[in-house]
Structures are given as C-alpha cells and as structure tokens.
Amino acid sequence: MRIAVTGADGFIGRELCGVLRSSGHEVKTLGRSNQCGTSSLADRMGWRGVLSGVDAVIHLAGRAHVMKETVHHPLDEFRKINVDGTLCVAQAAVDAGIRRFVFVSSIGVLGSDSGSAAFSEETAPAPAEPYAVSKHEAELALRRLEARTGLEVVIVRPPLVYGAHVKGNFYRLLRLVAMGIPLPLGSVANHRSFVGVTNLSELLLLCASRQIGAQRLYVVSDGHDLSTPELLGMLASRMKRPKRIFQFSTTILRHSAALLGWQRELQGLTGNLRVNSALARSALGWTPSKSLEIGIGEMVDWFVRSSK
To answer: Is-above-0.85 flag for pTM?
Structure first.
C-alpha cells in the first residue's frame, strides 16, 4: 500500500513511518518540513492533489496539549486545527478516492478519570478539557463525512504514549527523576494505562491495511497498568537513580494544586485512567510487540543518551 501520514515528523509519526516501511509499505510523509503539517491543516485549497495516488491516510497532525498556553481562547485554536484541519484532510482523501482514513484521537474524549472501571469502546464520551473537546468534535464531524461519502473512518483513542523522543508530560517526569527532586507522591494508589509508540504504530498499520467491518473505533493500551509510584520507580531504577518519593496527604495535594492552577497536572499523576483494549486485540489480532518494561527501558536509555 501507499499510506500517507500527516504529522510524520512528530514523536509518533517518525516511529509510525518506520513501522510502515519495515512492513513493506510505501509512505508519503506530510509534516511541517514539507508545508503539509499543522500550520497548513486548515488550508483546504492547499490539500488539493496532495493525496493523489494514496491508498490510506493515517492522520496524526494536530494541536496537542500546550504546556504554557498563550492564546485567550484555547478551544478556538484547538478547533481550528483539530476539527477544521482534520476535515480538510479527510475531504481531500474523499476527493482523491481514498477509502480508509485512520484518525488518532485521544482517550481524553472519554474523560480524565476512569474511576474504578476501565474505559472501553462502550464508554460514553465526556471530554473535560479543550484539547479533548476538539478531538471529540473532530470524531463527530468525521462520522458525518463518512455517512455522506462512504469514506471508511477508523478512530483510535490512545492514552499517554511513551517511547524514545517522547515529549510533554512523560519527558517532564524523566527530567524530574533525573534531577533527583523529591516528589510527594508516595501515598498515591492509582492505576494508569499507557501505550508504547511502537505498539501504537503497529495498531495503526492494522487499522489502515486490514479488511474491517462496521467496528471502526478502538481504545488501546499495552495492557499493563501502573501506579504513579511504580512508574517513578521504574524510571529511577533504569536511570540508576534513587527513587525519591515520600508519603504525603493526597487531599492536601489536591487543595494545593487547586490554589496553583495545577489540577490537570495533578490529575495525571494521581487519578485513575485504565483502558481495556480487548476489542482491538480480538478484532484486529493486535498484540503489543514490546512489553511495557522493554519500552520504558528504551525510552529511559534514549533520554540518558540525549541528556549527555
């Protein structure tokens, strides 16, 4: 197949392109470097002819979580790229006669805390943040386009993705552990799911290339949940650094985070976010090729090398 990947020069995109090529597929890379990345997603005219000769599209590009937001209306900015831009790419796929469009959404569409259960394909959407709201709106818009045109839209909702060249929250955790800063998270007893970038890429390949029926929505995880103290322990052990966490009241932590405006960051460290990926495994025959321990080890080794 000839598969187009938007956001090809990003963290997930680079790994995905490697997985596609190693599986014998031709890849058309669309990223910031060739003017088909985030900055031009919403330029409808700019997409004309870009996808000619392509069999399937895997759409990764978009506006992700912003660590230090500077715009006055974040949701408007997220919508411009994640909703309007996604529709531009999808319509271009329709115009080019492409049958399959794989959209990488977010588990955040289902909420920021799974409680005592696990998120699945049956969980009702409840996005709580602008980024997740925009991803959910993009999903709905794609389903409407699918109904009008017959484009096969496959939606994948991953949790936090880890691996070499990781950015965002995982990179911040790596830095904190490397710096040896004591963290008041010893009392946290949560359960969180993750997915390795290689495992996610292999799933996206299946979504783009397999014959599938009506089931075109999947949540995904490695299937090995960790508490935050367990994760920090794994990172510290691989770095050969001491595990510097101490017991502290989670109630006081939450109150302190509310005062400082750090609720989202604390939720990501103390809340539950479990994902049941049984359907992806049974329907697509997908099995993570790398265990969480191996994937975390590779990520830490890359971080240590890049920090020298």
So the answer is: yes
